[in-house]
Write a structure and sequence with these properties.
Nucleotidyltransferase, domain 5, 6-stranded mixed β-sheet, alpha+beta, 7-stranded mixed β-sheet, about 500 residues, about 25% strand
Length: about 500
């Protein structure tokens, strides 16, 4: 096979997925292997770093089945963001779990920083509110729970990284300790204005500089594969990008005014911006990607969308999350029932880590089907809240929502989303757009494609959902949702 292919690894919260992409930008083969999530205490969420790598290797091997003779032009990595781990530089042995982005174990430390009046200082440099979701607080927790952790970090014995850095370390056989700017910008140690690690932030969080990875652009040859098992040696590792950013790039959403929502375990709405702005509505600013210079992003992060559906199917004793969609379809109205999925607090635009999940409006006539419908509708309501905040902060009139991710396969959800936004929703038919975006960047870095215009013109199949809901019905539904959210907030 003489035509070039790109192998894109998407290491996510619920699975490690791999897509094989050809020079036409078409995914010719893909594979996914599930990964386990542990909940050792309320509010704590973690994974096994070894399992993240092992499942990625298994997915790579499956994705290359029948393509062993393919010419691999590059490997690309996209990943669950903010999830944090520390390992020994000499051995590559993880020291503790991978603390995932959903985990709140660093909340007491973050609260102390807030009490010390540091929130606005951190936010002005990073674009991020002080919250346990981000990586710096997790790294501090890990160092505090490793014997002589800070001393060993200062001496250079340890490596800190988000999941992209962990994948790169293993792909390169331990030769490269680096991350890309999108992931760096989600740590709260990276300065959006200097595009580098920041000494003051390092001091605030107590993270030794010696433990930090090098930071490079998203499309960049970081190194080459070296005995990773499923891959031949010497393949350029040519892109790394956070999953939400990769999805926006996969939509070819290069211009301001474009907004996408990724429907995953949690959800992210993101739009590109020419410069960083400070949100007035609890949104984040980060790096969208760095390709021929930095493009910034305005983003709203929602903690639990797909995770809430998964929780409900377990709660109801169903066999699989997909049964929730079937169950929700058994009723044609929510009958006044709202589900606020504050299962690990509420993210944007509320940022209330102490909010708790609620089912509001239960009556004697409420059934499991109503709860299932309320869970699906809750995804759309949360997206609506962040979409509205982004439109206000950006000062732009947004005319369409681009959609991707696992839950976007649900036609009822996509139609309800269009109705509650009163705008069209354009859903990608590509199952893993984050991996495709990473593949685009790797292809640009290695000459498979020569320009963003060429990428823009690649074929991307999609479906379109138009709004049909009467304005009075929409207003009544949103008022009921806002009342339910108010009841869940910790201030009440």
């Amino acid at each position: 096979m003489d035509d070039p292919f790109i192998l894109a690894i998407d290491q996510g919260t619920s699975s490690s997925k791999v897509s094989l992409v050809n020079a036409a930008g078409v995914v010719v083969r893909e594979s996914a292997h599930p990964v386990h999530v542990r909940y050792p205490q309320p509010g704590w969420v973690e994974q096994d770093p070894a399992e993240l790598w092992e499942t990625a290797c298994a997915a790579m091997q499956d994705a290359l089945h029948g393509y062993q003779d393919a010419r691999l032009a590059a490997v690309a990595v996209t990943n669950q963001r903010e999830s944090t781990l520390v390992w020994e530089r000499k051995t590559g042995r993880p020291l503790g779990p991978c603390i995932t982005w959903q985990c709140h174990r660093s909340a007491p430390f973050i609260a102390r920083l807030r009490e010390d009046g540091l929130e606005e200082r951190v936010r002005s440099k990073t674009g991020l509110t002080l919250d346990p979701m981000f990586a710096a607080g997790k790294a501090r927790w890990l160092l505090d729970h490793i014997a002589d952790g800070k001393v060993r970090a200062e001496s250079g014995e340890l490596c800190f990284g988000t999941v992209d850095a962990w994948m790169l370390w293993n792909l390169s056989g331990g030769a490269v300790h680096a991350c890309d700017m999108t992931n760096a910008s989600r740590t709260q140690l990276f300065n959006l204005h200097t595009l580098d690690w920041d000494d003051e932030l390092i001091e605030i969080f107590g993270i030794p500089r010696a433990i930090l990875p090098a930071v490079y652009p998203s499309g960049f040859v970081y190194g080459h594969t070296r005995q990773p098992g499923a891959l031949p040696e010497g393949v350029p590792i040519a892109a790394m990008i956070g999953d939400s950013h990769g999805a926006l790039f996969g939509h070819a959403g290069f211009l301001p005014g474009t907004i996408k929502a990724t429907y995953g375990t949690g959800s992210s709405l993101m739009m590109p911006m020419p410069r960083p702005i400070l949100s007035r509505h609890g949104l984040s600013t980060s790096i969208a990607w760095n390709y021929q210079g930095a493009t910034y992003a305005l983003e709203g992060n929602i903690y639990a969308t797909g995770a809430a559906v998964e929780w409900l199917y377990r709660f109801l004793g169903l066999q699989a999350p997909g049964e929730i969609e079937d169950l929700a379809g058994q009723v044609t109205h929510h009958e006044g029932l709202y589900f606020v999925p504050a299962l690990v607090g509420l993210g944007a635009p509320y940022w209330d880590m102490h909010a708790r999940g609620l089912l509001v409006g239960i009556t004697l006539g409420t059934t499991a089907a109503h709860a299932a419908r309320a869970a699906v509708e809750a995804i759309a309501y949360q997206i609506h809240d962040v979409f509205t905040a982004m439109q206000s902060d950006s000062g732009q009139s947004l005319s369409v929502l681009l959609a991707d991710g696992g839950a976007s396969r649900n036609d009822f959800l996509m139609q309800f989303q269009a109705d509650i936004l009163d705008l069209p929703v354009v859903r990608s038919q590509i199952s893993d757009l984050s991996a495709l975006g990473a593949a685009y960047l790797a292809g640009l870095a290695t000459g498979v494609w020569s320009s963003l215009d060429q990428v823009q013109n690649l074929f991307r199949p999609h479906d379109r959902f138009e709004p049909h809901m009467p304005a009075s019905q929409r207003a009544a539904l949103l008022e009921g949702w806002r009342d339910a959210v108010r009841r869940s907030l910790s201030a009440l």
